[in-house]
Amino acid sequence: METLSRAPATEIEVSSRFVRYATLGGTWGAWLFDALDATIFSFVILSISNTFGATLGQVVSIAAWFLLATGIGGLLLGNLADRIGRKRALLVSVLTYATGTLLCGFAHSVTELSVYRFAVGVGVGGLWSAAVALVGEVWPATSRAKAMALMQTGWSAGSLLAAIFAWTLLDASDPASWRHLFIVAAIPAYGVALLILVFVKESPVWLENREFLRNNKNKAGLLEIFKGDLRKTTLLALAISILGMYGYWIIMTFTPTYLQSVLHVRIDQAPVFLVWTGLGATLGYVLYGELAERVGRRQAFAAFFFGIALAIPVFAYGARMIPLQDGRLAWTTGNIAIIGVLSALLGFFTGYFSGFGAWYAELFPTSVRSTAAGFCFNFGRVSAIAGIKLVPMLIPVLGFTLTYCMASMTYLCAAALVFTLRETQGTQLTSGN
């Protein structure tokens, strides 16, 4: 039984080329700094531990709070985007994560830093919800997956920029240099907010649907995604996100620390991993979009999930095979190239992230599109808390390498689960769907 009356399937006038690319450019920039602010933390875990005299487990708890906040932000700001518009919610998200990141640079304790990273997480989670709904509704079905893939390259660009900032600003002789990283990372995001305010237009699909909702007693509430026919779709999409996020955040959170622990690289050398991972991911995002348009959303997801399940142990054991000199990695051109190739391979198969936006936008109706997409994507990220909290406990028992490789199992499960959801390739988004 339907629980939410739907607007008639009204054809919306196709957005102009300028509007489409302005939307893509604005969301790409917002997603870039979203990634920058989300990923810089992995470079400073040990530095923060030393500054505050905290254990690794205590500092990792900050990452857990961040991931919990992404789920809350995805749900609340996602619902806000369904109610007040995609553009306004986008602006709220950018300003939230920018301000939270800026404050991180002035934190005086682990507790205070946790609060600020929680705020960053709310903004990070909310941004994706609004962005995928906006891009999905502005771009036509024939090129929607490609547009989402291009938007997703903003994440790899942000990760790459985070690595460059870390490489430039972190100083092994200055234990407080991590503060500069947060401050510098926050400032450009305010400029992106201004560009969105000026150049990005509201979704015409949302505007058309808004008129319907004003005259319909059934408003799009937070719980609508768990009612009627939407319940099954929501839970299956959430399960796929959980499996995809669990492995990813273990990799992104612990790989710099893994390289420091196994190869004994310095804190200012570890960012090389993210540079190459970002380059590989950029290629993966683009090629995923092409593949999804050719073979469909489900087959593309399955291929990339299977690929990263293989890439994780290749990276972990490949890194261990590099010979050490005087107990640490010799920083030679050859060794950097080996780490680079392994990292790029790992990054390439994270290209599946460019598929969540198009698929989730096509699975849910306009009235709850941002709410549903934000909930499924970001509460998938919340599930990664379990992995992040579990890793420090398993390392003494299984060793860092085997613990790291266990992430592959979640990807194999995800590859099978994608076929439980319907294929949506070619779906037209109107005010009624």
TrEMBL record:
It comes from the Bacteria. Pfam families: MFS_1 (PF07690). Residues 23-425 form the Major facilitator superfamily (MFS) profile domain. Its main location: membrane. It is a multi-pass membrane protein. It is found in: Membrane. SUPFAM superfamilies: MFS general substrate transporter. Signal peptide: none annotated. GO terms for cellular component: plasma membrane. GO terms for molecular function: carboxylic acid transmembrane transporter activity. Keywords: Membrane, Transmembrane, Transmembrane helix. The chain crosses the membrane at residues 21-46, 52-77, 89-109, 115-135, 147-169, 181-200, 235-258, 270-288, 300-317, 337-360, 372-395, 401-421. PANTHER family: CARBOXYLIC ACID TRANSPORTER PROTEIN HOMOLOG. This is Major facilitator transporter.
